[in-house]
Amino acid sequence: MHSTISLADRFKNLGTETVFAVSQAAADHAAKGHTVYPFHIGDVNIGAAPNVIAAQQRAIAEGRAGYVAPQGILPLRIAVADDVGAHRGLRYGPEHVAIVTGGKPVIGKFIQAVMNPGDEVLYPAPGFPIYESMIDYFGGVARPYRFAADAHGSLSLDFDHLRSIVTPKTRVLIFNNCHNPTAAESSASEIERLAAFVLENNLLVLSDDAYSEVRYSGRTHHLVSQPGLQERTVILYTFSKKFGMTGWRLGAAVGPKPIIDGISQLNLNDESCTTAFVQWAGVEALTAPATAAHCDMLIQTLRERRDAAYEILRTIPTLRVVNPECAFYFYPDVSAAMQAKGFTSVNAFANAALIQTGVSFATRMHFNRLHPDETGSFIRLSYSGIGIDQIRTGLGAFAAWLAAT
Ligand SMILES: Cc1ncc(COP(=O)(O)O)c(C=O)c1O
Q1: pLDDT digits 0-9 by tens, 106-162
Q2: Residues spanned by CATH 3.40.640.10 within the chain?
Q3: Ligand 1: distance of its center to the CA of 2 in Å?
């Protein structure tokens, strides 16, 4: 049917997650009868803990399924405040927590709560694409910052670049330690430098901590734990990754009360509240000892997948790849591989890999705009939604394809 309906002008500034196009290409390839090795997926195929599932069913059966407060139920806000505080050596109370439907909504709601049109926002590129989309949509000025790579490909923040893009109009820094798509993380000294930068420039911080407890060794260094940072930082907290609860849509904003109150008011306007029985499941996830064993299993499963993938990736001579200690992504530099295979476009390289080997992955192009001099020859391989046998067979085929001239 022909339609003359056009969307409101503001939609011209709304971005998307272009990686969903990769999912579609993978599905189309599979529909033709081909095997697909899904390394493009950021979903976790391990599932929630049985006691959490039972708690949700109990909550429904007992009728705890009506509207609740826009900021969330008190037991969950207390549990999130305790959990966030315990991991960061800080004290939070329920007044510092707004429950939302996943981690993602924290991004747009935080930006709406603190950013005026024309304010500048620093955010990582590569980085989670929703930062850029929400800054543009709500009339901010997007200021992407970059990473510097050492000789081994390990990434760190590029402070010279950060200093070159900050201005008196910069209001917010978005920071994602244990980073999507690179799995890069900051050392203790880098966090100290970043804290100094935030204070010098009087910035507010959105700390996207989606992966800060998805880690295989060591510990995450938190920006919010630096002196003077708690009162200017909102944490994006999510049940998606560490509890394997992606589709449950449960998360929280944690930070200074005025911003949290603003986010709760947005909740009231948008959803009224996050689904009540899902919130009760969240209380179980955070407070029942039984959940811990499930989380250990989840991390152990991811670790085994990471090790199986790295075992193959590190032997491919045309890839430069780092073995990360957190999140569930590899972010290899594929410039040499592209050159050897005769590709100048990383998306064309990805399409050819899918057709020739069935291996499906995202590329740098799916994670925010390129910097002017950036070539973008990186790919993201996620191991959160693929089993070990598929990892071995798929990456084996990928390695063989790269080796063939
Ligand atoms: C960096 C980052 N932040 C936030 C999210 C949002 O996750 P969710 O809305 O499932 O909590 C994701 C999901 O992939 C992510 O990678």
Answers
A1: 999 999 999 999 999 999 999 999 999 999 999 999 999 999 999 888 999 999 999
A2: 65-290
A3: 37
Note the Cα 23 to chain centre separation in Å: 17
Residues 268 and 182 sit within 8 Å (Cβ to Cβ): no
Q: Which of 19, 240, 248 to mutate to test the pocket of ligand 1 (most atoms within 8 A of CB)?
A: 240
Average pLDDT over residues 378-404: 97
Mean pLDDT of all residues in 212-233: 97
Strand, helix or coil for residue 346: helix
pLDDT band for position 1 (cuts 50, 70, 90): low
Q: How far is the CA of 309 from the centre of ligand 1 (A)?
A: 22
Classify 9-47+292-403 by CATH class.
Answer: alpha beta
Q: Please tell me the predicted confidence (pLDDT) of residue 367.
A: 95
The pLDDT assigned to 159 comes to: 97
- CA 238 to ligand 1: nearest atom: 11
As given in the structure block, the two tokens for residue 173 are: 């820094």
Domain with CATH 3.90.1150.10 in the chain: 9-47+292-403
How big is the chain, counted in residues?
405
Q: Ligand 1: which of 23, 101, 180 to mutate, judged by most atoms within 8 Å of the beta carbon?
A: 180
Query: What is d(CA 100, CA 236) in angstroms, rounded to the nearest whole number?
Result: 10
CA of 211 to the centre of ligand 1 (A): 8
Residue of 104, 182, 326 to mutate, ligand 1, most atoms within 8 A of C-beta:
104
* Position in ligand 1 atom list of the atom nearest CA 42: 14
- The backbone torsions φ and ψ at residue 184, rounded to the nearest 5 degrees and listed phi first, read -70, 150
Residue nearest to atom 5 of ligand 1 (CA): 104
- What predicted TM-score, i.e. pTM, was given to this entire model? 0.97
Token code pair at residue 265: 């008011």
Those residues with Cβ within 8 angstroms of residue 240's Cβ, 6 or more apart along the chain or in another chain: 44, 102, 103, 210, 246, 248, 250, 251
**Nearest one of 150, 185, 157 to 320, comparing CA atoms:** 150
Torsion sign, CA atoms 5, 8, 13, 14: negative
Cis peptide before 75 (omega within 30 of 0): no
Residue 335 Cα to chain centre, angstroms: 24
Domain 65-290 CATH assignment equals 3.40.640.10: yes
